Amino acid sequence: MKLLMRDMIQDLLTTERTLSQLYLHAQHTCANEGLRQTVDECLAEVNQVQTRLFNEMEQRGWLKLPMAGRQEIESAIIHWEQQIERHPELAEEE
């Protein structure tokens, strides 16, 4: 079975996204500051690789992102305004 370059890059991107989630979880649950800094460095590196893979796929036309319509944007704004009304602690302090 021969894998296409597109499939390999997509698999790499999926792997990097998963690693990013795992490192983020480790960062949030880490009690040791030295270990947390190491995890932060790993997370930053994984995110850089993920960004490069994402950009490569987009440049090759292998990743098409849908544009949100006006209604979808307005719905998202209304949703988050309602969330802030229900949970004022989510609002930014000025």
Automatic annotation (TrEMBL):
Taxonomic superkingdom: Bacteria
Species name: Laceyella putida
One of the Pfam families matching this protein, by short name: Coat_F
Name this protein carries in UniProt: Spore coat protein
Keywords: Capsid protein, Virion
